Amino acid sequence: MSRFPMPAQTRRAFLASAAASTAGAVLPVLWRSPVHAAAPHEVQLRVAPGRTRLMPEPSGEIAAWCYGGTVPGPEIRVRQSERLRVVVENGLAEETTVHWHGVRVPHAMDGVPHLTQKPIGAGERFVYEFDAVDAGTFWYHPHQRSFEQVERGLYGPLIIEEREPAHVDRDVTWMLDDWRLTKSGAISEDFGNRHDIHHNGRVGNTVTINGRVPDTFAVRAGERIRLRLINAANARIFSPDFTDLQPIVIALDGQPVAPYPPDGGLVVLGPAMRADLILDMTGKPGRRVSIFDRFYEGLEYKLVDIAYSDTPLREGAPDWPLALPANPLLEPDLETASRNEVVFTGGMMGQMVAQGMGEIMGPGAPGGMTRDMNSMMGGGMMQMMNSSTAWFINGIAADQARHDMKPALTLARNKSHVIAMTNATAWHHPIHLHGHSFRVISRNGQPTRHREWQDTVLVSPREKVEIAFVADNPGDWMFHCHILEHQAGGMMAVFRVA
């Protein structure tokens, strides 16, 4: 289980959350479709400036950007195999899009500006329509200037329910986020600054659950809860410690896994990642149990308190099945799969890491990596530090302003592919592939224990991770770091499936 020291600059900014509203507050449900709807069900989703209250009264509301007038945006719930139509109206003074993170949508519905659609202009509308192919926990957010738009509050949960959901007493969604607030309590306007781009991204100083600084989450002894965790932060990695509650992981990034307890009770979620947990409330009535976040070494903090009511629901945990039905994913054939190498470089201290990984940066490295690293170790490093370009995939930094990104890889459609990703940087990178889910098959040459399906995988510094999947969704797909400042600084590429 990786633990990562926070840079000194962000240590001072870090704020462990104080008392506030109930963490288990129910997110507003925009639409829940009937089980057997024959036609698409339409959702109206307006994107506009608004106000939200992060802190309890007497703290006031602050300016934010909202989906449907709230932060997070309304929870959309559908059943697997149903069709969803979302009419997005842009009430902002700038362009936006909506990306359905982790959902295997058709290319034209993926919400990536200039790659899958023209951005939605101010005052314009766009209709997204797709089938809910996979059951699971997903979310939606903009892909236009996402380092600012997401940070201002534009995100919301999309829950696709199984045809036969797991038997629980409550199904609860927690969207985890952090905010960089000024002394006056407003959102800091220093979006996309060079320090954040070159380091760990925009780590905030105020942590929220469902848009509120958390205090307590009310439960009853004997209750079984399905807890859906979504990391909506720009850069913060969460690792809540549920040790006393003995959580069981039943899905990652929306895809079912054989139920298992996480190592040490810690659930590690990089930005954009999700986990579905089964939590049996085994404490005594009237008791309080604290959940701490323990990812950043030396900066552990209390995330929320679990508060048991005085009246138990039942004696002991229920004996109900935990496993979820599999989604319709094609199993990759590792014997026939193509082999592809991707190397991430750049960022602060990148030169030091690259020098220590000389073997990776040798003559056989992909994409001209040796030339790229030699450039950065010379005068190119100073040039990089004086611009917004900081990160490279196979030696190339994406320029989002040009809108003409050429595919870094072309993958044969309906064939199996293995992507070996090497993180030759000093920072973690949650790597997200659009349009597909993949199996995580190895880390540093060792097979993974669960061979989990994911759409976003957290790659540690100096780590090599292999993923495998069948490229069955045609089109040009984004492949990028979901630390949104890293994406803005160049860590983004295009995979073509044809």
UniProtKB/TrEMBL annotation:
<keyword id="KW-0732">Signal</keyword>
<protein>
    <submittedName>
        <fullName>Multicopper oxidase</fullName>
    </submittedName>
</protein>
<feature type="domain" description="Plastocyanin-like">
    <location>
        <begin position="384"/>
        <end position="497"/>
    </location>
</feature>
<dbReference type="GO" id="GO:0030288">
    <property type="term" value="C:outer membrane-bounded periplasmic space"/>
</dbReference>
<dbReference type="InterPro" id="IPR045087">
    <property type="entry name" value="Cu-oxidase_fam"/>
</dbReference>
<dbReference type="InterPro" id="IPR006311">
    <property type="entry name" value="TAT_signal"/>
</dbReference>
<feature type="domain" description="Plastocyanin-like">
    <location>
        <begin position="62"/>
        <end position="164"/>
    </location>
</feature>
<feature type="signal peptide">
    <location>
        <begin position="1"/>
        <end position="37"/>
    </location>
</feature>
<dbReference type="InterPro" id="IPR011707">
    <property type="entry name" value="Cu-oxidase-like_N"/>
</dbReference>
<dbReference type="GO" id="GO:0005507">
    <property type="term" value="F:copper ion binding"/>
</dbReference>
<dbReference type="Pfam" id="PF07732">
    <property type="entry name" value="Cu-oxidase_3"/>
</dbReference>
<dbReference type="Pfam" id="PF00394">
    <property type="entry name" value="Cu-oxidase"/>
</dbReference>
<keyword id="KW-0560">Oxidoreductase</keyword>
<feature type="domain" description="Plastocyanin-like">
    <location>
        <begin position="171"/>
        <end position="263"/>
    </location>
</feature>
<keyword id="KW-0479">Metal-binding</keyword>
<dbReference type="InterPro" id="IPR002355">
    <property type="entry name" value="Cu_oxidase_Cu_BS"/>
</dbReference>
<dbReference type="InterPro" id="IPR001117">
    <property type="entry name" value="Cu-oxidase_2nd"/>
</dbReference>
<dbReference type="InterPro" id="IPR008972">
    <property type="entry name" value="Cupredoxin"/>
</dbReference>
<dbReference type="Pfam" id="PF07731">
    <property type="entry name" value="Cu-oxidase_2"/>
</dbReference>
<dbReference type="InterPro" id="IPR011706">
    <property type="entry name" value="Cu-oxidase_C"/>
</dbReference>
<dbReference type="InterPro" id="IPR033138">
    <property type="entry name" value="Cu_oxidase_CS"/>
</dbReference>
<dbReference type="GO" id="GO:0016491">
    <property type="term" value="F:oxidoreductase activity"/>
</dbReference>
